[in-house]
């Protein structure tokens, strides 16, 4: 059995074989699928993964209610290539992100005319072809324009997402704060393919993204026979740090972890409100390790050395949990090695979808 097939077995359609599901439970056919992706969160940033002063929050509750993957990895240690690998199930080098020495070929700059190639087959396209309604909110960072300043050639609407809500093509980069003049050149908020804010205000931005995600889930209930896929790419705890809480004993960084958890909680609670929690597979993870070097704004990679931007254990070893009440055994742990690239082939199994013959997967 191949490695990818093993991964499909333990979080895919035959969960019960390896004890991942509750006794007698059957995995729902073609479940809804949600990816909740944190930005720059380290393995050690949570109470559940050993942080000494981070408050216990709703993400910890997900860990207690789902299956934690304690040996899970990102494909790269910076945003653009890691996200490309998530969406394509392929190593970043295969899709054009390959050189630490040449930043423009490793991650997308605001002025770049590069992006995720349209010919790449994404999770959204896979699930769309399988009959799913597909949606995306939050950070993209896989390209904007190609031929001019406004064509939106690389935006998520052109990569299989039927519905795109509040999104940040570049994300919340380090200089996106209310006092920085650089805001005008790199910090924008879009609604689908339309720019709606430049520069943007941090206050309430996370709630706007959360509301947008919940709008998509609620709208998807109008066609109950059609399952949905949501890629909710959340902003925290990437710098610039901002918060709506100001209450963590860990300071501003801890507030950002709690703000992230609040967003996750609202989305999960909506699943219960709509009574679709047992029909929805949720996967929470970080895009890569934290950057522990940014003074008071840096994260914690626990016992693992290194961090964002480097080729070390702390750069790639990430927190991850799968959650699906009634199917995935609460409080269970897998120590089998896994990767964010494994999500696409796993979702192909869950959805009954199939990959084009020309696609070579690494997951």
Give the number of DSSP strands: 13
Spatial strand arrangement across the major sheet: 7-6-5-4-8-1-9-11-2-12
Structural class: alpha/beta
The parts where pLDDT drops under 50 for at least 5 residues are: 1-10, 12-20
Give the N-to-C terminal Cα separation. 14 Å
**Fraction of residues in helices?**
10-25%
Question: What overall geometry do the principal axes of the alpha carbons give?
Answer: globular
Percent of sequence in beta strands: 15-25%
Determine Rg (CA atoms, Å): 19 Å
What does the largest sheet look like? Answer: 10 strands, mixed
Listing every helix as H and every strand as E from the N terminus to the C terminus, the arrangement reads HEHEEHHEEHEEHEHEHEEEEH
If you had to describe this structure to a student in words, what would you say it looks like?
This protein is of the alpha/beta class and 363 residues long. It has nine helices and 13 strands. α6 runs parallel beside α7. It is globular, with a radius of gyration of 19 Å. Residues 1-10 and 12-20 have low confidence and may be disordered.
């Amino acid at each position: 059995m191949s490695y990818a097939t093993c991964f499909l077995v333990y979080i895919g359609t035959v969960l019960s074989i390896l004890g991942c599901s509750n006794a007698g439970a059957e995995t729902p056919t073609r479940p809804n699928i949600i990816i909740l992706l944190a930005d720059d969160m380290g393995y050690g940033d949570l109470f559940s993964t050993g942080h000494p002063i981070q408050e216990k929050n709703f993400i910890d509750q997900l860990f207690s209610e789902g299956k934690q993957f304690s040996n899970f990895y990102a494909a790269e240690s910076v945003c653009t290539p890691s996200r490309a690998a998530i969406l394509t199930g392929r190593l970043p080098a295969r899709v054009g992100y390959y050189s630490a020495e040449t930043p423009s070929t490793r991650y997308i700059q605001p002025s770049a005319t590069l992006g995720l190639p349209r010919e790449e087959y994404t999770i959204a396209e896979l699930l769309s072809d399988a009959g799913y309604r597909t949606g995306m909110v939050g950070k993209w960072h896989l390209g904007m324009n190609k031929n001019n300043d406004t064509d939106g050639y690389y935006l998520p609407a052109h990569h299989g997402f039927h519905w795109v809500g509040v999104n940040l093509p570049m994300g919340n980069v380090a200089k996106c704060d209310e006092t920085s003049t650089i805001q005008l050149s790199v910090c924008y908020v879009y609604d689908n393919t339309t720019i709606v804010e430049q520069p943007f205000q941090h206050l309430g931005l996370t709630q706007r993204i959360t509301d947008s995600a919940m709008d998509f889930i609620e709208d998807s209930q109008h066609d109950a026979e059609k399952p949905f896929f949501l890629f909710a790419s959340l902003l925290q705890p990437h710098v610039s740090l901002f918060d709506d809480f100001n209450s963590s004993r860990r300071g501003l960084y801890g507030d950002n972890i709690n703000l992230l958890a609040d967003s996750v909680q609202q989305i999960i609670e909506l699943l219960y409100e709509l009574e679709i929690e047992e029909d929805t597979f949720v996967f929470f993870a970080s895009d890569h390790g934290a950057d522990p070097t940014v003074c008071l704004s840096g994260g914690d990679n626990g016992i693992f050395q290194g961090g964002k931007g480097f080729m070390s254990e702390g750069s790639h070893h990430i927190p991850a949990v799968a959650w699906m009440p009634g199917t995935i055994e609460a409080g269970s742990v897998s120590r089998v090695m896994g990767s964010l690239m494994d999500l696409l082939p796993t979702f192909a199994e869950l959805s009954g979808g199939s990959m084009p013959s020309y696609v070579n997967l690494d997951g």
